[in-house]
Amino acid sequence: MSFNPSKFKGDDLPVDSVSWYLAQKFIKTLNSRTGKKFRLPTEAEWEYVARANTSGAFSFGDSHFVDQLSEYGWWRTNSGETPMPVGQLKPNPWGLYDIHGNVFEWCLDDYDAYEEGGWVAFSGADYKVIRGGSFYCPANILRSACRIEPQIADFRNWLTGLRVFLAPKRSS
Known about the structure:
The protein is α+β, with helices and mostly antiparallel strands. Helices cover 16% and strands 16% of the residues. It has three helices and eight strands; from the N terminus they run H-E-H-H-E-E-E-E-E-E-E.
């Protein structure tokens, strides 16, 4: 028996309405069932795979290519403001689908914000990073480098889901 917290349910839709804590619980269950070591990506890892060895605003080019965004990501212009089936658009150069848009994705990191005068933390571990934009966002939020305001770790809404990473095996 499985539990799907999503507001929008479908076999090919991304899971949404996931808090950071619920994502951790899912990953713990996934690890115990598979014997593997999955986890959320760090914010740096998320951006690294989103960029896929590119340097533009998006994995397919720079900001003047926003007219191409609908070929790679689900956003306000092409989604009907609802999540769309995963893997239907073009992948990034490393073969990852839906990096730009569809649902925001939790990262492992606590959120630290830079303010004039130095780094300040938002209540430590209570605030987490989300990246990637969603089906409801304008194009600028879907940029590979875009970092929006933090989310409280127990926050759940229909714009936020997750992407899991398989931790690399350490060589001895």
